[in-house]
Design brief:
The complex is a heterotrimer of chains A (511), B (329) and C (364). Chain A has 511 residues and is α/β, with parallel strands linked by helices. Chain A contains 16 helices and 20 strands. Chain A folds into two domains: 237 residues, P-loop containing nucleotide triphosphate hydrolases (Rossmann fold, 3-Layer(aba) Sandwich), CATH 3.40.50; 168 residues, Rossmann fold (3-Layer(aba) Sandwich). Chain A has a six-stranded mixed sheet with strand order 6-7-8-3-9-10, sandwiched between helices. In chain A, strands 16-17-18-13-19-20 form a six-stranded mixed sheet, with helices on both faces. In chain A, a hairpin with a 5-residue loop joins β11 and β12. In chain A, α12 crosses α13 and α13 runs parallel beside α14. Chain B is an all-alpha fold and 329 residues long. Chain B is globular, with a radius of gyration of 20 Å. Chain C has 364 residues and is mainly alpha-helical. Chain C is built from 14 helices and six strands. Classes of the chains: A alpha/beta (511), B mainly alpha (329), C mainly alpha (364). Chains B and C meet through α3, α4, α12 and α15 of B and β1, α6, α11 and α13 of C.
Chain lengths: 511, 329, 364
Amino acid sequence: MEKNCYAIELRGITKRFGPVVANDGVDLGLRRGQILALLGENGSGKTTLMNMLAGIYLPDEGEILAEGHPISIRSPKDSFAHGIGMIHQHYKLVDVFTAAENIVLGLEDEKKLDLKKANARVREICQRYGFEIDPEKKVYDMSVSEKQTVEIVKVLYRGAEILILDEPTAVLTPQETERLFAVLRNMRDDNKAIVIITHKLGEVMAISDEVAVLRKGKYIGTVTTAETNPQALTDMMVGRAVTLNIDRPLNENQVDRLEVKNLSCYDHEHVKKLDRISFTAKGGEILGIAGIAGSGQKELLEAIAGLYPVAEGSVSYYPPAGGKEELVGKTPMQIRRCGVSLAFVPEDRLGMGLVGSMGMTGNMLLRSWRKGKSPFVRRKDPEQLAKQIFRDLEVVTPSIEFPVRKLSGGNVQKVLVGREIASSPNVLMSAYAVRGLDINTSYTIYNLMTEQKMKGTAVIFVGEDLDVLLELCDRILVLCAGQVSGIVDARSATKEEIGLLMTSVGGKEEA
Amino acid sequence: MSFLNLILNLVIAAITFGTALLFGTLGEILTEKSGNLNLGVEGIMFMGGAFGLGGVFYYEQLAGTPNGFLAVLIALLCAFLAGALASLIFSFLTTTLRANQNVTGLALAIFGTGVGQFVGEMMRVKAGGYVSLSNAMKDVFTMSPFPAFLKDIPYVGSVLFGNSHFFYLGILLAIVMHLFLKKSRKGLYLRAVGENPATADSAGINVTRYKYLATIIGGGISAIGGVVYITTTAGCTWNNEGLSGVGWLAVALVIFCLWRPLSAIWGSVLFGALMILYMRLQLSFIPTELYKILPYVVTVIVLIISSLRNNKEKQPPEALGLAYFREDR
Amino acid sequence: MDEKIKTPLIRLSKRSQSSLSPAAAWLIRLGSILLALLLGCLVVAITGNNPIKAYGTMISGSLGSKVYFQQTVKKAIPLLGCALAIAPCFKMRFWNIGAEGQITAGALAATFVARTLGAKLPSLPLLLIMAAAAILGGGLWGLIPGFFKAKWNTNETLFTLMMNYIIIGVVAWLQAGPWEARQGRIAQFDAAAQLPRVAGIHCGWIIVLLLVLFIHVYMRHTKQGYEIAVIGDSIRTAQYAGMNVGRIMMRTMFLSGAISGLVGFIIVAGANHTLAHDVAGGVGFTSITVAWLSQLNAFAMIAISMMLGVLTKGADTLQTVMNIPAAISDIIIGLLLFCMLGCEFFINYQIIFRHKAGKGGAEK
């Protein structure tokens, strides 16, 4: 009886990528007039699962039912035909097209392309739901939030009845998030089925009617939002109560190591990315950096490492031996020689920092290849290091010469982070070091960071999880829209306090 | 007066030569709009030239009284099919088997040049030393489609109306292609495929089909450039070196005219002028052999200038040269 | 449930950790070479000739006697040298197709030295200066597009190609003008400017074999080779590691051009003993095939260049004996490349048929 209520039902869906099982026998049902939150940690298979509804991937096993009838979704076209529209995390828009051109892309309903008509319909949809967007604006001129609007209008334009949003708030400001949620509620009242993929509990509680939880590719269960609480959801998500208990010893020997003063940066489109950032990082402490994704974390670390052009401001480095050096104006190599190291885990992991076609040894070499006067590379030390990381971080690879491109994400990350830490720097910067890692490995990384701290290293740790930041760091710097909105003591600060800072530009809106 | 005549003659000759380039360029524009960088245009044009000429040559031998219109049609069709076939190989290797587009294009350039020369040589041997069409047939190919009185308009008559019908066909094709890319639904989808195949794919556009079709049709159009060259500039005879370099210039021209079919018209005439300048405008202080490298020097300069510009609207299709595989991760 | 609506008949997936053994991969590559040769048979058959006889003619015409063999080796020498020159560029994903021009530039420089110093110096120093000039000439000719690529990311494929036509035009001018001896030809070199023979073939073969060792060591064991490999993989990563990408690109293009230039010297001083505008004769293009077919492996290049030497020399014989145009060698080379490019797919991807996938799932 209840089955008939499902607009879409997934039964026993399994998807593998080589040896990796991304989804393992997942069951899920979506109802009309309901917002379902699909909750899970990074890498738990949420996006993969929804991509099978969108026709991007094909399930290896299992079946998909629409209104109780088995259907086959082999392509995005099939997906549209069943009224499914997915808004991906990485917007799928053509930069040189206008909003309307992007919106009508792939439509076959009318023979002739009539952009005027399309523009009018886009305006009409915008009006109905309260979006603000110019159909004739080119995508490359748009802000992130505008691009997201285009994506949503795109699926509405095709009359989608089932909307899937993949981490829609990751790049939005709180105001924009609120606006988005209002729109989603409108659509729910329009009797549409909505899925929102997220790992943020606050949003789950705020917007959803039901929550389905995935853990490591497995379906854990579905609960009604009104009958649950964040603690229970967290338990479902991670499989046990989160008592992080990260060991946090205090290093009494703290010395100023890095002083950033009034640092400002612009991207190549002259948008201000960093706005007069000032702070001091001390040797012997972990300085956490918190903020909504895209608040300038990446730019800050890259600017210090010499990889991002600095418009104004200074970065002073105080070597352990004494003295003072200005890092702005130095090449990445010179900065690195000072002992300032960057372990940045980019979104595609292999884009920067690792050489995909080489094995672990070749990647260790990336740090030491220039050593010595001889024109030949020395492979002996890197090989030793590779073996050590292979052992210590339990990297799963057939051999240390096996191309890292073919390793799984977590293992790629271990190679990267392991290498950066092994160079025993004076300043260690890491961004998203545990992104996509399982909990055990995450702890290994936390311990390594703490170990470095106790050695007297100044550790700068950009993290996504506030719980981790609060338990791992000594101080936390909060970024908001490229500005420092506050620096708090991690031992005494609360999550709410930081959450507030994350959304208050320049700390001015502090209530 | 004589200077004016010189200029007019130069323009007419430039148009004759440029017509071959125009087809080569238009074909490659279509191909590149789908995100495929087919560097094999050189080979494709060789094949088009050899097969196109072969088609008419044997048609003329078989039919006692050859029909001029049919002969042109056969030439175009044979060339198109040869180019389409060559591009099919390219599409299969790069789109289906995801081979590197650069190397595949180079392979096609080698292969196509070889096939063109092989076929031309075979015909030469079979025909007893010389492959050439009759004079009547040569006239058919260089004839203008307009009545004589238009050509007799002073000064502009012969420039505007005295060119071979291939030139007008090329202009028509450029206009059609412009409208297709800018105004039609399929054109919009094709551009989306070339800019961002993942987006096109998720919008339900059959990326593979668009890439195949654009590349095959584009290759066919480029190949017509080969037969146009052989039947107009080269005087309807086959020689192994005649087409050498034309295909590569066409690839460079695509960059020069910013992937815009309409710009290809004047671009190819300009390059046509550069190619024949050494014959038409002899300057005593420049040796002929050095004069001949002028178009290549200009191309280099064009390449450098085009790499300096930094405008969102004037860039190559974003996904040009990249293979697309949906399940890649 | 009907199986049909679940999964399509054929699907592809990337080979992962259970990837093919190197031996199996090379077996597939060998198979693709055989396939290309079979397709070549088809071409011969279309012309109405017996393919087996044609291949027989090619083999006997290239390896059948000592003289033929020496001629084949002579053809293979520049191919091998030039493939070695291209390898670092391709490893760096810098599509240098200007080897033809870099050979010509090197040959031009060597000829200049031979003409000006030919009668004044003894053989050994003369040859050494010629070689040095060729290295410099070819290197500079390669450096120009490298410079613009490094500075403004100028399309290197077309740039290097246009550079071919330009330098060939310059030589054509010299040949017909300032340097002309008779009937549009440049005079033969003095005996002092000719490479000595070793084992019946000019000693260029020793030089290129030394180059094989050099490139192997350079690519695998030097810092510069490592830099090239990193840039070829990801420019971002290279910058992150503190590499000066532009400088490395220019240096690599100079090296590549220099080796091609040296090949040009070997051709004029060893084989032709004079300069002509077609001195490179397509070697620059064919060697791209050699480099790619051997997967940029320096030692594999020896075998592949010999194979293509057999093909081109055999095709010449084919033309005189069976009246099949020598362009057949280009066709077969093209086919070889096509098959090799295609077969990489089967090494990197797995084809999964529906029933097989279903079964595998059921068992699990």
